Amino acid sequence: MAIPPAVNRPVGTIERAIEIMEYLKENDTATVSEMTDHLNCAKSTTHRYMKTLAANSLLVEDGNEYQLGIRFLDYGEVARNKYRLYDEAKPRVDELAEETEEKIWCAVEEHGRSVHIYGAQGKHSVQTYARVGHRNYLHQHAAGKAILAHLPDSQITETIDRHGLPGRTPQTITDRDELWEEIEAIRDRGYAFNFQESVEGLHAVGAPITDENDVAIGAISVSGPASRLEGPILRDELPTLLLGVVNEIGINMAHP
Amino acid sequence: MAIPPAVNRPVGTIERAIEIMEYLKENDTATVSEMTDHLNCAKSTTHRYMKTLAANSLLVEDGNEYQLGIRFLDYGEVARNKYRLYDEAKPRVDELAEETEEKIWCAVEEHGRSVHIYGAQGKHSVQTYARVGHRNYLHQHAAGKAILAHLPDSQITETIDRHGLPGRTPQTITDRDELWEEIEAIRDRGYAFNFQESVEGLHAVGAPITDENDVAIGAISVSGPASRLEGPILRDELPTLLLGVVNEIGINMAHP
DNA sequence: ACTCCTGATTCAAGCTACTCGAACAAAACA
DNA sequence: TGTTTTGTTCGAGTAGCTTGAATCAGGAGT
């Protein structure tokens, strides 16, 4: 469950360090000067920050360029392994990719957003912006909407209040009322669709993985080109397949 | 190439934050009190640090327990993708695992230590402490020694000076002269062995991946139970196989 | 060769904001 | 119920973070 991360007096130094990491995630590489323009502080300060981070292997220097160090992998893997879901879902995601020949994602919710913890590609699967570790908005994709619809209303409101409903494509739902209607529909049928709401030309189906208390602990989605994912395949075949899988994972999670 | 990360005046706040992350990596989970015992500061300070980190999704709160957030995956994946080696090596590591039925690792050097960037397991492969993202000492395992032996002498000395030669098993090489002899041997034959030097009962062979300037940009290793990896298999068959693979990767890296 | 520039790096001084300890609240315990 | 342990808040003081200027290193232009 995501508790609103409101801190009374956050440590500025830490937040600025994270700002550096975030910038390097987006831009791959940066110099001290470039980073100074981005942050709002003296160049000497930026320099000291980056040197400190580099000394701890969080950043790697290559001449004057800095980039993220793979030490993050270490932390990331530890974090991922904590989600038992990963172990349970991985083999079935692989199977699904094999079977459907499309792209399969497993996502979890964290702080009101979603994180892709595992993905597998089928023979014909498409490449999108998404990758393992990617965080995005719950309302923008099938797996996210599946999780969102499974939250109690109060938490949905809270999530929307916190993150808003930013658009990504013209099809993305950015209106609160419209989203609530969509949520009702998802609750009725038990799974969510995504009609080009995250990527143009991409359709998807997502279904929630629930624990023994019917709380959504994650979701799985199948996505592919709109031309291929439509009609009965999208409406009936894939949802049936998907529901079987998420059900199975849920049961395995409940009875280790 | 690893430049000695010596910082004049490191930012204490950042280093303490990293200390928290490191502790959580080792211990999976911790409370504010527990962390306060570990760090040397007031409980209120620890509290503020952890709240700040949690507010930025680097930590996740579960009641009073904190653990690493999977936001690290995001950074880790970005970092890993920067190593083109990963893309080139992955398919061949998978093949090797299939072919040898043993555990295969691909590692790179960073700051005088090694990082496993990818691993694949064959049908009979053993599980060890190692996992993706794991950092350890170059002199303690086959892939690491293969990289180490390929460095110029000055950098080897520098690396040893910085990190020392800590032992892991009774077989680990902890004596400088002995290590230099080993390095000579590795240079002569072109690949490295590991006879229970990292894990008791485990043997391995490792060979370096070199770029067009004969600089080692990584290494690949095959490891398995000592009972299975011995005699001609360990001495001839696997090295031949391995050299073919690292050679191929090297060529592909040089001519994209 | 010399100059000019751009960017990294160092340093002392000033003052921000990080650290501390105490006090409070809340939960666990006996 | 009282007691202990834990998380949390807050004001005050000073450690140490920030700053801007000065220095150094490398490259480009003349």
Automatic annotation (TrEMBL), chains A, B:
InterPro entries membership: GAF-like_dom_sf, HTH_MetabolicPath_Reg, Tscrpt_reg_IclR_C, Tscrpt_reg_IclR_N, WH-like_DNA-bd_sf, WH_DNA-bd_sf
Domain HTH iclR-type: 11-70
SUPFAM superfamilies, sorted: GAF domain-like, Winged helix' DNA-binding domain
A GO MF label: DNA-binding transcription factor activity
UniProt xrefs under Pfam families: HTH_IclR, IclR_C
Signal peptide feature range: none
Domain named IclR-ED: residues: 71-255
Keyword Signal recorded: no
Keyword tags: DNA-binding, Transcription, Transcription regulation
Transmembrane portions of the chain: none
GO biological process: negative regulation of DNA-templated transcription
Repressor in keyword set: no
PANTHER family: HELIX-TURN-HELIX TRANSCRIPTIONAL REGULATOR, ICLR FAMILY (PTHR30136), HTH-TYPE TRANSCRIPTIONAL REGULATOR RV1719 (PTHR30136:SF35)
The protein's name: Transcriptional regulator
Gene source species: Haloarcula argentinensis
